[in-house]
Write a structure and sequence with these properties.
The complex is a heterodimer.
Chain A: H1 17-39, H2 45-52, H3 55-86, H4 91-106, H5 109-117, H6 119-122, E1 125-135, E2 138-145, H7 152-178, H8 181-189, H9 194-224, H10 237-248, H11 251-285
Helix pairs in contact in A: 2-11, 3-4, 3-7, 3-9, 3-10, 4-7, 5-7, 7-9, 8-9, 9-11, 10-11
Chain B: E1 5-16, E2 19-30, E3 34-38, H1 45-52, E4 60-65, E5 68-69, E6 72-75, E7 78-81, H2 84-92, E8 94-97, H3 109-119, H4 125-138, H5 154-166, E9 172-176, H6 184-199, E10 203-207, H7 211-217, E11 220-225, E12 228-233, H8 235-240, H9 245-254
Parallel strand pairs in B: 3-10, 3-11, 8-9, 9-10
Antiparallel strand pairs in B: 1-2, 1-4, 4-5, 6-7, 11-12
Helix pairs in contact in B: 3-4, 3-5, 4-5, 5-6
């Protein structure tokens, strides 16, 4: 082993003066900003500490979380349905899916939320059955009144989830398109129906492509919930902190409270996303060990 | 007469848009016959194969497999399109092996083989695994049951694909250039599996450039070019003394 006697190279490492200069510059700016902020009365840190763990804020953060979770859950299911409809051999499904995505992706979510808030003004009730046919007071169908006090919480969820479904549909569609056409042909030639092929062959393979952007959508949804004030739902994190700041005539510390909570949630979600993506990449880029 | 025929194709035409790929193919494949389809790329061999499995819909002509019209039902002198479930049922009887294997990458070898049995024929898992294991053993992959396709060589993947098709107990097997995507040293193992299958009496149509296989295993050889059959007959004869100029030109390049 003559080679091992050779010593490893001992070279003078390259200097990086610009990196040091940049680090110094940004640290300086950062420290200056923090020192200044700690003494600036407008931030009112006392108020920040007083309200950041306030019970109302705590509950409002819960509302924001539940709005995010339920809306995303519905959006993912409806988004998968729209994407699958988009690829259906049935032309009616394809057109309906296209139209839905066109409308809900093409208008601002804030405007959509205002519309959902006005639902009871537009439609006073909805009716499932055959209209105009009745025996005395008995109709062939079921009548659902939409009361003026229809749950704003659920209207917000409907608004958020339908809008998000349009985006999820495009993400799922990209995932489905990433699966080689030969997969579908092989499944078809085995006698699998279109739906069986989708369910057991195409969708499982599309998941690897679908998961990462879905994580981004969840983080995005968390922040979009702050728009539910358009419905108007005022129990979420942003509306509640605005509401408190109106009471104490001091908006800035409460905005900081809201930001702190949003940042906390998105940070947790980013960690979760990191591990989920690592898990899904494992099956693909690194060879899987067989169970022999 | 038609009792002995597995495939009966009469004047098959197929176009993609304005591009006519099949310009009147008439072919007969007997039960137990092994037919090799050869010809330059773009001659329509693969398209014809895909028509037999109804992966492509023919524009005109009559295509029958095992005395059943493919893709249509005839009643009162009219053709009716088959329902998707009926078309799927027809495909169960026709196995297909692809150039690019098309194994399901998220499933192990054994799960690939039993996928059709479980999802289509609704056979219980234990029975399917027993049958699938036997099929993989027959193609020499008894030790690769739990391997994912990414862990198998091209030749091994193609043999899994053959086993997967055989799992549906087809009466006819279609091979679309099964060895074209393989490294040269892996071609033999796939051809061996096909040869074994031919000897078991399976009716096979094989699109291939492997003239050695055609000479040794096939009962008939069909030469296609430009969407028509130029000549056909005993493989030995066609290969030794091709009648058509274009057949001669093609064979001089691949032999």
């Amino acid at each position: 082993m003559a080679r091992s006697t050779k010593s490893t190279i001992q070279a003078v490492p390259l200097r990086h003066p610009f990196r040091w200069a940049a680090a110094f510059y940004f640290v300086l700016i950062g420290v200056a900003f923090i020192v200044d902020a700690l003494h600036r009365s407008a931030y009112d840190w006392k108020a920040f500490y007083k309200y950041v763990f306030d019970e109302r804020v705590f509950k409002a953060a819960g509302v924001t979380l539940s709005l995010t979770a339920i809306s995303m859950f519905i959006a993912i299911i409806w988004g998968v349905a729209l994407a699958v409809m988009r690829r259906s051999p049935n032309p009616v499904f394809r057109q309906v899916s296209w139209f839905f995505i066109w409308v809900f992706r093409g208008t601002p979510v804030y405007v959509q939320l205002v519309f959902w808030g006005l639902l009871s003004t537009i439609y006073h009730s909805f009716f499932i059955g055959i209209p105009d046919i009745h025996f005395g007071h008995f109709y062939l169908g079921v009548h659902f009144p939409i009361s003026q006090t229809a749950s704003l919480y659920w209207l917000a969820i409907i608004g958020l989830s339908l809008n998000e479904a349009a985006y999820m549909a495009e993400i799922v569609r990209a995932g489905l398109l990433s699966v080689d056409k030969g997969q579908e042909e092989a499944a078809t030639s085995l006698g699998m129906s279109w739906w069986t092929t989708m369910r057991f062959i195409v969708i499982p393979q599309a998941m690897r492509i679908i998961i990462p952007p879905t994580g981004n959508e969840i983080i995005s949804m968390l922040k979009t919930t702050s728009l539910v004030t358009a419905v108007p739902l005022i129990t979420d994190l942003y509306a509640r902190t605005r509401n408190i700041s109106d009471e104490i005539y001091n908006p800035i510390p409460l905005l900081m409270v809201a930001c702190a909570w949003y940042l906390f949630f998105t940070t947790v979600l980013m960690f979760v996303q990191y591990f989920v993506e690592k898990r899904f990449a494992r099956g693909h880029s690194v060879l899987r060990v067989s169970h022999e | 007469m038609s009792e002995s025929l597995m495939v009966n194709a009469v004047d098959i035409h197929k176009s993609f848009g304005t591009n006519e790929v099949l310009k009147g193919i008439t072919l007969e494949v007997k039960r137990g016959e092994v037919m090799c389809l050869v010809g330059p790329s773009g001659s329509g061999k693969s398209t014809f194969l895909r028509c037999i499995n109804h992966l492509e819909r023919i524009n005109s002509g009559r295509l029958m497999v095992d005395n059943q019209l493919i893709g249509y039902r005839e009643s009162n002198g009219k053709l009716h399109e088959l329902k998707p479930s009926e078309a799927a049922a027809q495909r169960i009887g026709i196995g297909m092996v692809f150039q690019k294997f098309n194994l399901f990458p998220h499933l192990t070898a054994i799960d690939n083989v039993i996928s059709g049995m479980i999802r289509v024929q609704k056979i219980d898992r234990a029975t399917a695994i027993a049958e699938g294991t036997e099929l993989l053993r027959r193609v020499g992959l008894a030790d690769k049951l739990e391997h994912y396709p990414a862990h198998l060589s091209g030749g091994q993947q193609q043999r899994v694909a053959i086993a997967r098709s055989l799992a549906m107990k087809p009466k006819l097997m279609l091979f679309d250039e099964p060895t074209s995507a393989l490294d040269p040293e892996l071609v033999g193992e796939v051809l061996d599996a096909m040869k074994q299958l031919a000897q078991s009496g399976m009716t096979m149509i094989v699109v291939t450039h492997e003239m050695g296989f055609a000479r040794e295993v096939a009962d008939s050889l069909v030469f296609m070019d430009g969407g028509v059959v130029l000549e056909s007959g005993d493989p030995e004869e066609v290969l030794r003394s091709p009648k058509h100029e274009r057949t001669r030109a093609f064979l001089s390049k691949v032999l």
